[in-house]
Design a protein that fits this description.
The complex is a heterodimer of chains A (507) and B (165). By secondary structure, chain A is mainly alpha-helical. Chain A has helices at 2-16, 18-35, 40-52, 57-82, 93-102, 106-139, 144-161, 166-180, 206-225, 245-248, 250-265, 270-284, 297-321, 327-338, 347-350, 352-376, 380-383, 388-407, 410-428, 434-457, 461-466, 469-504, and strands spanning 183-184, 191-192. In chain A, a hairpin with a 6-residue loop joins strand 1 (183-184) and strand 2. Chain B contains 5 helices and no strands. The chains are: A mainly alpha (507), B mainly alpha (165). Chains A and B meet through helix 8, helix 9, helix 18, helix 19 and helix 20 of A and helix 1, helix 2, helix 3 and helix 4 of B.
Chain lengths: 507, 165
């Protein structure tokens, strides 16, 4: 209950001060980057990180959360209006949102998507408030073995479950862990991999790595596509008649939001999967399954409620365990670390004001999404007409000057360029980039706890693990996360063989 | 796909091998096994280097098999459009030149040049539009970073040496 009293004590500061302004600005930016295909909330949060360094921690996180929440919603508009998901998590919204738009009901579809995102955000905010402190309480009992295993689980889950190639995901994760070792050894202070450069003695600047890995390849890909013309002429507005769906289709909102929170809290799965699970659930439980895929409102509500609820869900393990649930949350965690705030169970004791502020601002952002969307939706057709060439230039300059702003060093710009090239080739070789960032964030946690664990276990590591059932249990989950892609591959191959055999069997 | 995986595998092996080699040759300070539980400063990255090699070997082995039929049939993967790659390479060259020239030319000249070149590279051909956007972008970013974020932007060593700045 301490946290609730902390939150109510801070309400004045949060709601009348800079944090609420940061949330509104974040939502505004987030919706725009979500709407514009090729940008998305990950790039938005990445480019905004340098600007948070000059803000108070809660205000900075409020800005990032606003972008995360707004960006998760914005992609739906592009999916409905243009038939292109503005962000990957809006892919499922396309299934029924686009047919609604084609039938002249684009405004209805956008209203349902807005309501779904709003509802899902609020539910996930409540879940965050209720479950994160409980999880943090449990995690206080954890020792180095449990923390090491949890970090390992977070990394392997994201590397193996989130993208097509699990092995390449693992490679990216290992690369991130290795990049985190650049600089001083946490135990002895010995300099590692600094190539004689004093600038590297403190390690790689997080923002330079982040911006290089995500923003520069995005700019290069946009240039490659020759897709420079703005599009979209459709006029949109929110239809208040659709608000009735909150009463008539309430179960779809609630069920899909619950799916979103649950899936979001599991590291590595994320909004894309949660929205497809919610969509399938809505279709399977519907009396009229045939209407799905042809403009069924429940399809839009389910996907948007779920992917929006994933945002709060993903914050639960990050805040309470220090394990980010998805790449955007990993970036936000990096932002907190730069402020000297280490997410994890101790945060709920040492920085209770920050935790209360984050919870308060997440809920505020979720609540403000609806009125802000009502103002912004009619402007979307103009946003979609912004020339792509202009966007490319703006993203590049934000990347360069955002990185420079951290330490005012040209060296960081070179670091960013090198990682830009690395990120570009990772895209070309289809190596997922998110595990690299998560590996970089979790690297110090893994190393320090591995070495502590090694000290404690001495010559009997098996006995040590047998004496710590939670750590052993998490290790089993790590093994399952590693085995899952292999097993699903085998199953897929078996199904393919059976299908081929059926085809070749004479009638 | 298989070719990309093969390249990724080779990269992982070479990178991992270099890390392992470097942990043996570069970390001259040997640390007592009582600190860090027997894992010294090089031990953890060495472990990761070995993991990288293992992952690389997995990728190479899996894709050597996958490559074989395509090679026999003479049907490799379609190559990426060289024209689009060239556009990206030119753009990256412009970015690198921008970072290299920034300390010498300063924020205003270097940024104005890169904005104009990028607008032109991305298809804008109207000189007036390029000029207007360039001035607007350079001014907006200057105000945002110099006065909003209170960052001192590079003034340019060239102008300083000429006594202009």
């Amino acid at each position: 209950m301490d946290l609730f009293s902390e939150l109510s004590g801070q309400l004045d500061t949060l709601l009348l001060g800079p944090p609420i302004l940061a949330v509104v600005v974040g939502l505004f930016i987030g919706i725009i980057v979500g709407v514009l295909p090729g940008l998305g909330p990950l790039l938005g949060v990445t480019l905004a990180i340098p600007f948070t360094f000059h803000l108070e921690p809660v205000t900075g996180v409020a800005l990032l959360m606003g972008i995360y929440q707004g960006g998760s919603f914005g992609g739906a508009i592009t999916a409905i209006v243009l038939g292109i998901p503005g962000t990957p998590i809006a892919a499922a919204t396309l299934l029924d949102g686009r047919p609604m738009a084609e039938a002249g009901r684009a405004s209805d579809a956008v209203t349902l998507a807005t309501l779904g995102s709003w509802f899902g955000g609020i539910i996930s905010g409540i879940a965050l408030l209720l479950f994160a402190p409980i999880l943090a309480d449990i995690a206080l009992e954890f020792g180095p073995a449990e923390i090491f295993c949890l970090a390992l689980l977070g990394l392997t889950a994201i590397a193996t479950l989130s993208e097509a190639s699990a092995v390449k995901g693992l490679f990216a994760g290992v690369l991130g862990l290795l990049l985190a070792t650049i600089g001083a050894d946490p135990y002895t202070g010995v300099s590692r991999f600094n190539f004689g450069m004093t600038e590297l003695s403190g390690g790689i600047t997080f923002v330079a790595l982040l911006v290089g890995i995500f923003a520069i390849p995005e700019v290069l890909r946009q240039i490659e596509r020759h897709d420079m013309v703005g599009r979209g002429t459709i006029m949109l507005s929110l239809r208040w008649q659709a608000v009735r769906s909150l009463a008539t289709r309430v179960m779809t909102y609630v069920r899909s939001s619950a799916v979103g929170v649950t899936v979001g809290a599991i590291p590595g799965i994320g909004g894309v999967v949660s929205s497809f699970i919610a969509y399938k659930l809505a279709r399977d439980l519907s009396r009229d399954k045939d209407r799905f895929g042809k403009g069924e409102p429940d399809g839009v509500i389910a996907t948007e409620s779920a992917n929006s609820a994933t945002t709060g869900g993903a914050l639960i393990p990050m805040l309470s365990l220090g394990i980010p649930g998805d790449p955007i949350v990993a970036v936000m965690m990096g932002g907190l670390l730069v402020h000297g705030i280490t997410p994890g169970p101790l945060l709920f004791i040492t920085d209770k004001d920050v935790v209360a502020g984050v919870f308060g601002m997440f809920l505020t952002g979720a609540l403000l999404l609806l009125p802000l969307a009502a103002i912004m939706v009619p402007l979307f057709s103009r946003v979609l007409r912004i020339p792509r060439s202009l966007l490319i230039v703006i993203v590049l300059l934000l990347a360069v000057w955002g990185t420079f702003a951290v330490q005012s060093r040209i060296f960081d710009l070179w670091t960013m360029m090198i990682f830009g090239l690395v990120g570009y080739f990772m895209v070309k070789l289809e190596i997922p980039r998110a595990p690299l960032v998560i590996g970089f964030v979790l690297g110090p946690v893994l190393e320090v706890n591995l070495r502590r664990m090694s000290s404690l276990a001495g010559d009997a590591p098996v006995d040590y693990f047998l004496g710590r059932p939670i750590a052993a249990g998490i290790l089993v989950l790590v093994a399952l996360a590693l085995a899952y892609p292999m097993l699903s591959g085998l199953l897929q191959a078996r199904r393919q063989r059976l299908a081929d055999a059926e085809k070749t069997t004479p009638q | 796909m298989a070719r990309r995986d093969l390249i990724a595998g080779l990269v992982a092996i070479i990178f991992g091998a270099w890390i392992v080699y470097d942990t043996f040759t570069s970390f001259t300070v040997q640390v007592s096994s009582h600190i860090g539980g027997g894992i010294d400063a090089g031990g953890y990255p060495r472990l990761l280097g070995l993991l990288s090699i293992g992952i690389g070997v997995l990728l190479v082995l899996a894709n050597l098999r996958a490559l074989a039929p395509a090679t026999r049939a003479g049907t490799g993967e379609p190559s990426e459009g060289t024209e689009s790659f060239r556009a990206a390479a030119v753009a990256f060259g412009v970015f690198v030149a921008y970072v290299a020239l920034l300390p010498h030319l300063g924020y205003f000249v270097a940024t104005a040049a890169v904005v104009s070149v990028l607008l032109w590279l991305t298809g804008e051909r109207r000189p007036t539009v390029i000029a207007v956007w360039t001035v607007a972008i350079v001014a907006t970013f200057f105000i945002a970073f110099r006065y909003g974020a209170t960052i001192l932007l590079p003034s340019g060593s060239l102008w300083r040496s000429l006594g202009v700045a």
